[in-house]
Design a protein that fits this description.
215 residues, mainly alpha, 2 strands, globular
């Protein structure tokens, strides 16, 4: 199962898009992974790990045109999600508690959607452009360096735009809290990227050895 290049790309694309949708749904919840330490991240961090790693793989193995399609798939899926969530908010319900609870969790504002898509698009393309630039220079060598450097800059861009627009302007969080979240998430993402590099590298090698189609 998933032995051909096409099946691997299909699986990774699904993981990429679904993870982004889930992450943008749960972003309003924050948590402290280390009790007693002023170190706070959004719940979305749990799922942004997947598109972060999968994005490295897809940017590495796909032609630019095909990777652009994957990014647009993610954008389209999030746009549909935002439209549906917004339309549902206008459905009548006599129970104000239900309405308030839904609006708090899923009633995404225009600012949250703008924040999500701005961070997503700028972060994804920053990641991809660095991968492509380094690959043009090194060929298929030094993949771990490409993945590591591109993720650092891609996530810095993504986190900055998303958290400033969504957390500070939309959710009205204090700037000090937003800054802590930005530093915390970026720091943890760099650690996770570093820890997962051997797995990411192994998946890229597996992809390159896979046949184009199953026989």
């Amino acid at each position: 199962m998933f032995k051909s290049k096409r099946s691997i790309i299909e699986l990774l694309t699904i993981i990429f898009v679904v993870s982004i949708i889930i992450a943008n749904t749960i972003v309003g919840k924050t948590w402290k992974p280390f009790p007693g330490i002023d170190f706070e991240v959004t719940a979305a961090f749990l799922f942004f790990i997947f598109p972060m790693i999968v994005g490295d793989i897809l940017a590495e193995v796909l032609p630019k045109r095909d990777f652009n399609k994957v990014i647009l798939y993610g954008f389209g899926a999030n746009l549909l999600m935002a439209i549906v969530y917004t339309l549902v908010t206008i459905l009548p319900n006599p129970d104000s508690f239900v309405v308030d609870a839904y609006n708090l969790v899923l009633g995404q504002s225009l600012l949250v959607f703008i924040a999500s898509m701005t961070g997503y698009l700028l972060g994804s393309y920053t990641n991809a452009f660095i991968v492509w630039a380094l690959k043009a220079k090194h060929g298929e060598n030094n993949f771990k360096l490409r993945a590591w450097v591109s993720t650092i800059f891609g996530q810095i861009v993504d986190n900055f735009f998303f958290q400033i627009i969504a957390l500070y302007f939309a959710f009205k969080m204090p700037f000090e809290v937003v800054l802590i979240i930005f530093i915390s998430e970026t720091f943890l993402e760099i650690i996770i990227e570093t820890l997962f590099l051997p797995i990411t590298h192994a998946l890229v090698k597996r992809y390159r050895k896979s046949p184009e189609v199953l026989v």
